[in-house]
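Bug report

Summary: structure tokens for Multiple sugar transport system permease protein differ between web form and batch submission.
Environment: batch mode, default settings.
Steps: 1) Submit the sequence below via batch. 2) Compare with the web form result.

Sequence submitted:
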Amino acid sequence: MTVRLAELSGSRGASWHLLPAGAFISMIVPVIVFLALQRYFVRGLLAGSVKG
């Protein structure tokens, strides 16, 4: 996805109206994955913590 964003700023100038839209869409995917798997991330962090 980041390669496609880099290609938007081609040799003849950047499509400035497309760059923020593409950046926003490329940020949505990891956020959705994190929110969907958040309970497993927390469970893994707590399982690996030092118990005292």
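Above is the batch result. After comparison, the two runs are identical; trailing whitespace caused the diff. Strands lie at 9-10, 13-14. The chain has one domain: 2-47.
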